[in-house]
Design a protein that fits this description.
heterodimer, A: alpha+beta, 4-stranded antiparallel β-sheet, two-stranded antiparallel sheet, 4 helices, B: alpha+beta, Alpha-Beta Plaits, 2 domains, 6-stranded antiparallel β-sheet, 19 strands, about 25% strand
């Protein structure tokens, strides 16, 4: 069974299917993930779950991940709590405002049909 | 009815100085919206005002405005700007002086919106039962009361619209929401009622789209970024709004950048929380109702926006003294740049421990390897052969003493740490005061916006 599944799907980075913009609200970062093609939006809804995003950013965030759906924009919005070392002026990070967590999410791989 | 055109002239304090001039001279507009206030800007301004009672506003606003004042008057363009910071009256006074210098006495009416500043009232408000708990942590403000430097309620569009109704040409405000600066001209122009939630939500979405300037017109746009034309000459976004709440986002002809559905979508999701509840003092906008359509070159049509009644709270932005931090950097070159930077980090940490210094946090990044994407990036590239790595190490503490001592431990590493190191030309890092942000809510009824209109 596993062999057959491998034959019909392949893993691709989200970079090939979506674009994103991220920003901050205090110590929480948000990442808006937008399907490049509207037809791919259901794939994002199905595979880019809050739990999967939390695993992707393991070790980089101290809090939970929430997900919201915007079908009208073919977009998902993720809130990453505890992502910014205290956020704003407190943070010691180069990316204290989470501006490039957007492309960090686009490193995630999902399964698509071959 | 012709559409009302609101142009973004400034997306934050420090944005492109050329943008306001280009918006005013590049084609027809009715309003110029200029957003200056970020979350901790108010505390910086509060400090400036404490040193000099004539300061405490975004000083860059005055020369930017002076440059365009003749065109504003000639073309009847009105301005909404939250450049007033914690001293809108002093800001208005500086604008009035600029108008006189340009020979425009009698031709400019200034609106001033205040009432947002709660610093003097804070103890009374706490005594009256406004707890001002931190929206993120739930802690009561009492925890940091003695260290509070600024406290400002976010006012909405209503007092700005009131200033326009009373004939103001240039409205200077304190802490008015970014979106309110765009919504107010639309309320004024179209006579939208205070309970026309869909229209107010549409104007709020329009404000959200242009409040970050060129981020809606091709700047910081991920899609096809290397095919977006002429960013050197980027046109800032303009909203062309209709009385029914629909609007288009566009930019002046013969400017660079791009207005596209993907680019506008990126700005819509920027700094978003729950998309069904975008809460402002004016309404609650539902971003899941927004419809976007490309309506021509560099023109996106926005429709369908639905809103709900405003809440009975206002958000309050409180700034308080938190402690100190410093960040030091060194650059390690090939060969084994990453290993050498890692070794230097270990040496430095051992010395800090040896000195018995206490920090709330020590944070190391290897710029070129993991500074932005952390462990997600570390395995991605062949870091063994990387040409150079910047070691960037930061510390944070309640007291200045350990932070100050840390700043003296960077330079020695050049001669007494791992080799092929450089990049200390900037000198010893300086300890920096941390002023932190405390978001809270307050009952709307206890905040009274104040509107004045003055003839110059």
């Amino acid at each position: 069974m596993r062999k057959r599944k491998a034959a019909v799907t392949k893993r691709v980075p989200l970079l090939e299917l979506a674009h994103a913009r991220s920003g901050d609200k205090g110590d929480t970062a948000n990442i808006g993930l937008i399907a490049l093609q509207p037809d791919d939006y259901p794939l994002l809804v199905k595979q880019v779950t809050a739990a999967k995003v939390a695993r992707h950013f393991k070790g980089m965030i101290t809090g939970s991940v929430e997900r919201y759906e915007l079908p009208n924009l073919h977009a998902l919005n993720f809130l990453l709590h505890g992502a910014l070392d205290g956020g704003g002026t407190i943070s010691l990070k180069t990316d204290a405002q989470g501006k490039v967590l957007s492309t960090a999410l686009l490193r995630m791989e999902i399964e698509v049909a071959r | 009815m012709a559409p009302v055109r609101v142009a973004a002239g400034q997306g934050f304090w420090g944005d492109w100085l050329e943008a306001p001039y280009r918006q005013v001279t590049g084609g027809p507009i009715d309003y110029l919206m200029m957003d200056y206030l970020a979350e901790v800007t108010m505390s910086i301004l509060q400090k400036q005002k404490a040193r000099d009672p004539a300061l405490g506003y975004a000083k860059d606003f005055v020369p930017a405005l002076e440059r365009i004042l003749p065109q504003l008057v000639e073309r009847g363009i009105k301005v909404t700007a939250n450049a007033g910071g914690v001293n809108p009256r002093a800001c208005a006074q500086a604008v009035a002086d600029a108008a006189r210098r340009r020979g425009l006495s009698g031709k400019v009416r200034l609106g001033i919106v205040t009432g947002d500043d709660l610093l003097e009232r804070l103890d009374q408000l706490l005594a009256d039962g406004q707890e001002l708990r931190n929206l993120d942590t739930g802690r009561p403000l009492g925890d940091v009361r003695s260290r509070v430097l600024a406290a400002n309620a976010y006012l909405g569009a209503a007092p700005v619209a009131e200033a326009l109704r009373r004939g103001a040409d240039i409205v200077v405000t304190g802490r008015v929401t970014d979106t309110g600066l765009t919504l107010a001209p639309l309320i004024h122009a179209f006579g939208w009622r205070a309970d026309d939630w869909d229209a107010l939500a549409a104007g709020t979405v329009a404000g959200h789209l242009i409040e970050c300037g060129a981020q809606a017109s091709g700047g910081n746009c991920a899609v096809d970024w290397d095919r977006i034309p002429d960013l050197a000459n980027v046109g800032y976004p303009i909203v062309e709004a209709h009385p029914d709440g629909t609007f288009e986002v566009t930019k002046h002809p013969r400017t660079g950048g791009r207005i596209s559905v993907p680019g506008v979508t990126e700005q819509l999701v920027y700094e978003m929380g729950d998309p069904t509840q975008y809460i402002t003092p004016d309404c609650v906008a539902d971003f899941t109702t927004i419809r976007l359509a490309q309506a021509g070159r560099d023109r996106v049509r926005v429709s369908g926006v639905r809103g709900r009644p405003a809440t009975d709270k206002l958000k309050v932005s409180i700034a308080y003294f938190y402690g100190y931090k410093a960040v030091g950097t060194l650059v390690y070159a090939w060969p084994e740049a990453y290993r050498k930077a890692q070794a230097a980090d270990q040496v430095l940490r051992q010395r800090l421990r040896g000195l018995g210094l206490e920090f709330e946090a020590i944070h190391t990044e290897f710029v070129g390897v993991d500074a932005t994407h952390g462990p997600l990036a570390r395995g991605a590239a062949n870091v063994a052969d990387i040409p150079e790595v910047q070691l960037r190490i930061g510390v944070r503490a309640a007291d200045v003493a350990p932070v100050e001592r840390f700043t003296r431990e960077i330079a020695p590493l050049i001669l007494n740490g791992p080799p092929s190191v450089t990049g200390f030309a900037g000198g010893r890092p300086k300890p920096e005061e941390i002023v932190a942000y405390w978001p809270a809510l307050i009952d709307k009824r206890v905040v009274q916006p104040c509107v004045e209109v003055l003839e110059v």
